[in-house]
């Protein structure tokens, strides 16, 4: 019995060590973003918000941030729509070549982003679609569709397949059944897919680096800083982005939770 | 039919006027509306570029200009160079090492999360594991640079107990730290999902029949969670095999991996066709690895009696 408990503690301890490994770079990034020195060590030599002021005062960083936001929102909308459409097609129809269709839907993330970037640059430069923000959007949608598709397909798998046909039997046509049965049921996964694809696009640097050319997104700017000399600007950028994306995640969680409790209240009130 | 029900029905049917003939036609348009976007987008922006990659490997470069051609010179050239072959097997080895290391390091953690955590602790643990997906991998690698540098945080700690300094930047260990940063949360999550699907009754049965702890883990739990464990390792391999950032920023690009080779080939000689050869070989390797892994992950072993 005591050996069992010892083993349980050891295992939990290992999990804790893994978490430390995962969080060390995140926490160090936060701490060092307030360092006044270029080569910070622990304990910090002082406290300064200088790097934050620097990134806000230089044009490239805010511009790159704006590019990332624009691209992220458009990519999220397009890839979530296509991902939803593909998930629904997979859910509802059987057809010749379905395996190929699913491969198209799911394969892109298994190809290294370096190669995707290279390949897209080779191709898009042939048809003169390279170097603009829309090039980044075109390429990112390819990479983001699988994430949206997977999330929404998982939700559809939980749906009673008779619900849609019940709606048809009650006289709703396909569009109406889609609007009143499928869409409301998949709505949480659609929001989740929007958030996830936006996050993936916002964070992707390799494809954006290749096809974006001089149109830099934020992570491409970070990549440029990383390859140059040591620059604690990266710490400040990383902290800002982390704070924004975590707030979005937590906000979406709160929205989902309050929505769910709202549904429960309605259900309780209806009885 | 009850009047109420009829009323609802007529309300729904009347404005739409669904006749069978019209409906059939409509459904086809409907199916196309949902089915076509993916096919069109991925054929144009994913399959076409990949096909173009294959074509590109046969093009030639003269005076730094690309010329459409059908010449195997790039293939012959790349495969006859010793360092290209070496780099290929080195990258393969790095990916395999990272996948194995990460799987082994992750297993006790995912096991603890699946079997030794209360539901609340589980939820907190999962949230913590998802958090790194919302931080930039580049930023985390940059932080690691400051941690493992010669005069960094880690060597500062070692110095307190009279050890070090250790050189980690520019070594294989540095590269591996980066690879594991990239893959560890994902591998723990995937292992956790398959471990939590293991039937507890079978585990208890094994223990009741006198199976020891370690034997239960390796003869009952691991085989039951095999699919997830293999797929997690495969994902780790795929991610590390093509990663550029860890081997350059933490491994200082020496010795190079295939992704560094691609970038150098493009940057130095502007030789896109040769870079395409390397890229295509990488894609083919990943396809072979992925299908082999799927074969082993879903294979049902014949019972040995």
State the gist of this model.
The complex is a heterodimer of chains A (271) and B (305). By secondary structure, chain A is mainly alpha-helical. Chain A contains eleven helices and no strands.
Structure description:
The complex is a heterodimer of chains A (about 270) and B (about 300). In chain A, helix 6 crosses helix 8 (about 175-205). Chain A has one domain (about 60-270): Orthogonal Bundle (MetI-like fold). With about 270 residues, chain A is an all-alpha fold. Chain A has helices at about 1-30, 50-55, 60-90, 100-105, 115-125, 135-155, 160-170, 175-205, 205-210, 220-225, 235-270. Chain A is globular. The mean pLDDT of chain A is about 85. Helix content of chain A is about 80%, strand content about 0%. By secondary structure, chain B is mainly alpha-helical. Chain B folds into two domains: about 20-45; about 80-300, MetI-like fold (Orthogonal Bundle). In chain B, about 75% of the residues lie in helices and about 0% in strands. Chain B has helices at about 5-15, 20-55, 75-80, 80-115, 120-130, 135-150, 155-160, 170-195, 200-210, 215-225, 225-240, 245-250, 260-270, 270-300, and strands spanning about 60, 65. In chain B, a hairpin with a 2-residue loop joins strand 1 and strand 2 (about 65). In chain B, helix 4 packs across helix 8 (about 170-195) and helix 8 (about 170-195) packs antiparallel against helix 11 (about 225-240). The longest helix of chain B is centred in the N-terminal third of the chain and has 37 residues, at about 20-55. The radius of gyration of chain B is 27 Å and the shape is globular. The termini of chain B are far apart.
């Amino acid at each position: 019995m005591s050996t069992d408990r010892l083993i349980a503690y050891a295992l939990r301890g290992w999990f804790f060590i893994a978490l430390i490994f995962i969080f060390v770079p995140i926490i160090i990034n936060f701490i060092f973003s307030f360092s006044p020195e270029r080569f910070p060590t622990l304990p910090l030599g002082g406290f300064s918000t200088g790097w934050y002021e620097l990134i806000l005062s230089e044009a490239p960083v805010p511009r790159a941030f704006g590019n990332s936001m624009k691209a992220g929102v458009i990519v999220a909308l397009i890839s979530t729509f296509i991902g939803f459409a593909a998930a629904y097609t997979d859910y509802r129809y059987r057809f010749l070549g379905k395996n190929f269709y699913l491969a198209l839907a799911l394969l892109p993330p298994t190809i290294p982003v370096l190669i995707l970037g290279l390949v897209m640059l080779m191709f898009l430069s042939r048809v003169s679609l390279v170097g603009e923000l829309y090039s980044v959007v075109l390429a990112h949608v390819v990479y983001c569709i699988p994430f949206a598709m997977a999330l929404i397909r998982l939700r559809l798998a939980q749906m009673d397949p008779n619900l849609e046909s019940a709606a048809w039997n009650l006289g709703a046509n396909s569009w109406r059944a889609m609007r009143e049965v499928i869409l409301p049921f998949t709505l949480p996964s659609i929001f989740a897919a929007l958030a996830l694809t936006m996050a993936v696009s916002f964070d992707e640097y390799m494809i954006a680096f290749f096809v974006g050319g001089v149109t830099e997104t934020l992570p491409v700017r970070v990549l440029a800083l990383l390859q140059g000399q040591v620059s604690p600007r990266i710490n400040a950028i990383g902290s800002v982005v982390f704070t924004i994306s975590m707030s979005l995640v937590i906000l979406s969680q709160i929205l989902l939770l309050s929505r769910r409790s709202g549904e429960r209240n309605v259900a309780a009130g209806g009885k | 039919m009850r009047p109420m029900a009829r009323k609802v029905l007529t309300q729904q049917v009347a404005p739409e006027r669904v006749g069978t003939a019209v409906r059939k036609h409509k459904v086809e348009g409907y199916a196309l509306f949902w089915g076509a976007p993916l096919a069109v987008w991925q054929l144009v922006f994913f399959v076409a570029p990949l096909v173009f990659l294959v074509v590109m490997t046969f093009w030639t470069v003269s005076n730094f200009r690309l010329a459409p051609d059908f010449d195997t010179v790039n293939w012959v050239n790349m495969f006859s160079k010793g360092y290209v072959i070496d780099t290929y097997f080195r990258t393969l080895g790095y990916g395999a090492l990272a996948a194995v290391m990460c799987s082994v390091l992750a297993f006790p953690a995912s096991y603890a999360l699946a079997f030794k955590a209360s539901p609340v602790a589980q939820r907190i643990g999962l949230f913590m594991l998802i958090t790194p997906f919302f931080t930039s991998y580049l930023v985390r690698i940059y932080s690691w640079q400051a941690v493992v540098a010669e005069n960094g945080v880690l060597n500062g700690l070692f110095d307190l107990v009279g050890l070090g300094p250790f050189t980690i930047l520019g070594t294989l260990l540095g590269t591996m730290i980066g690879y594991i940063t990239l893959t560890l949360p994902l591998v723990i999550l995937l292992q956790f999902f398959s471990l939590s699907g293991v039937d507890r009754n079978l585990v208890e049965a094994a223990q009741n029949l006198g199976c020891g702890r370690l034997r239960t883990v390796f003869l009952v739990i691991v085989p039951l969670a095999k699919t997830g464990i293999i797929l997690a390792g495969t994902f780790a391999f795929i991610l590390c095999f093509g990663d550029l950032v860890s081997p350059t920023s933490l491994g200082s690009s020496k010795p190079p991996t295939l992704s560094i080779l691609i970038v150098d080939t493009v940057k130095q000689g502007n030789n896109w066709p040769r870079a395409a050869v390397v890229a295509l070989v990488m894609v083919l390797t990943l396809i072979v690895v992925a299908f082999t892994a799927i074969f082993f992950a879903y294979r049902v072993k014949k019972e040995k009696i």
